[in-house]
Specification:
The complex is a heterodimer. By secondary structure, chain A is mainly alpha-helical. Helix content of chain A is 80%, strand content 0%. Classes of the chains: A mainly alpha, B alpha+beta.
Amino acid sequence: MPDDLAEVYRTTYRALVRFLYRKVWDADRAEDLAQEAFTRALERRPENPRGWLFVVAANMARDEARRAARERRHLTLLSGEQPAAAPPSDETLHAELQRSRVRAAVEQLTPRDREVLLLWDSGLSYDEIAEQTGLARGAVSTTLARARRRLVEAYEAGSERSHVARG
Amino acid sequence: MSHVDEGTLHAYLDGELPGAEMSRFTAHLAECVDCRARLEEERALVQRARDLLALVAPPSSRARKRAHPWRRLRLPLAWAATVALAFAIGRYEESARPGREVKSDRVEPPIVAPPVVATRPAAPHPGPRASIPSSGTAAQREVAATPTAVMAQEAVAPPPPPAPAVDLDSVRHFLAQAPVLLPGAPVRRVTRAPDGIVVEQQLESGEIIRLYERQALAVQPPAAAKAAPQPSARRTAALDNAAAGAPPGGERLARYVGSLRVEITGPLPADSLSKLLDLVK
């Protein structure tokens, strides 16, 4: 691996996995996709590998989501994890519930808001986000502000619905 | 200056406000109570959003392996299947060679892996997924063997000799430095491994743990890059390797100690090995 790409790998790999995970919601798949993105970067040697990796990763995640949607349509009867050996603790259940609410809130964002928010959280600068999304630099900050607000509102609305449902 | 907009507040909080705007912004903020209050509200919002996103960070490799133990078997099973296939191909080539009889009762030399060094099939692509370099076991040689090589191998075909013991002075030659050890545990044996050494140390409880040490430079760059960056990700590659190559009944974890890559195995649970590995210096 060339030095520059090795450095990008060192500084970006975990962020790229995190970015992908919040799109495909499968940690192993996110790692596979991140590695695939780096493999492609090795072949293509892009000028700006960091930005390029996130573009490629976003495209791969999109393809992955389409593929997953197709599989869900065809294989609904086969879904389902193996039951856990022991019932989860209250703490585990609570944490899992919180995660699923955040996930739902992330998925409620518009694609643009979500993209900008996840790219920022992955460590990209406003300039890098602008370059990747095609937004003007000034629009990145307003999009990010809106995305954050909507994320928090969607999460809290989900929590309230849950409390009402439980009485 | 009129009140600042939401985007400007977030750009300021993100440290992304350009210099020219920054001076106007701070001047306005100094005299506008409303904007100062809004800034604090937005600061709380930014923090809240960050906290929420942190809740949906990908689980660690270790947590995933606990949740899906079958994944630990996936690569070892693939490796076992590869060895079996290579063995079958080797036998087929042998039987297909003209002028040579195949004795059905022939005793095959056992396939013995060197201590600690586990093997796995080549990665599907040259990506950053860590892989342990080939150690050249009999099985792997069969995978790569040409018919000529197979013949040459059959002419010799001795079982691999046990790894020779080496003294600690020789170790400096192999590692270009003194070996790292688990403090307080007597060294039972030091042997040569393909590109490093294996140190066997005995714990107070009597169990023998093995440390496979080699220069980090000998490891594939992607693996080194992957394992090096952040303390939290220190063992990611190693755990992947462990999933692929853990010997029966044991785990294998690794980390970098200075310029050495150190892998630990032993008849202990992964958590215990992990704690021991942290003590190695």
